[in-house]
Amino acid sequence: MKKRIVLAICVILVIILLVPIPMRLKDGGTVKYQALLYSVSKVHRLAPLESEKEYEEGMIINILGIDIYNDVQ
């Protein structure tokens, strides 16, 4: 009986830590999927005025607050 309770608590913790919540930013279309352990951002925002491109697009992946992948161009 005690193993089932511990297993249920572990499953609930994993779900809380790993299930992302999508957030839409008001910068031109960026969507950020945020969980407690990681975040994934699909970037689509207006570029600075001195830039040649009109939009910056790409993907940013953070795990525990550390940039793992950044492909924003």
Short description:
With 73 residues, the chain is an alpha+beta fold.
Question: What report would you give on this structure?
Answer:
With 73 residues, this protein is of the alpha+beta class. It has a domain at 20-70. 23% of the residues lie in helices and 42% in strands. The protein has one helix and five strands; from the N terminus they run αβββββ. The chain has one helix spanning 2-18, and strands at residues 21-24, 31-34, 38-46, 55-63, 66-70. A five-stranded antiparallel β-sheet has the order 1-2-3-4-5, with no helix packed on it. A hairpin with a 2-residue loop joins strand 4 (55-63) and strand 5. The longest helix is centred in the first third of the chain and has 17 residues, at 2-18. The chain is elongated and about 65 Å long. It starts with a helix and ends with a strand. The mean pLDDT is 93.
Biggest β-sheet description: 5 strands, antiparallel
**Outline:** elongated
Note the run of SSEs as H and E.
HEEEEE
Q: SS-based structural class? A: alpha+beta
Helix content: 10-25%
State Rg.
17 Å
Quaternary state of the chains? single chain
Number of strands: 5
Strand order of the largest sheet: 1-2-3-4-5
pLDDT < 50 runs, ≥5 residues? none
Q: What value does the average pLDDT take?
A: 93
Question: How much of the residues is beta strand, in percent?
Answer: 35-45%
The count of helical stretches stands at 1
CA-CA gap between termini:
54 Å
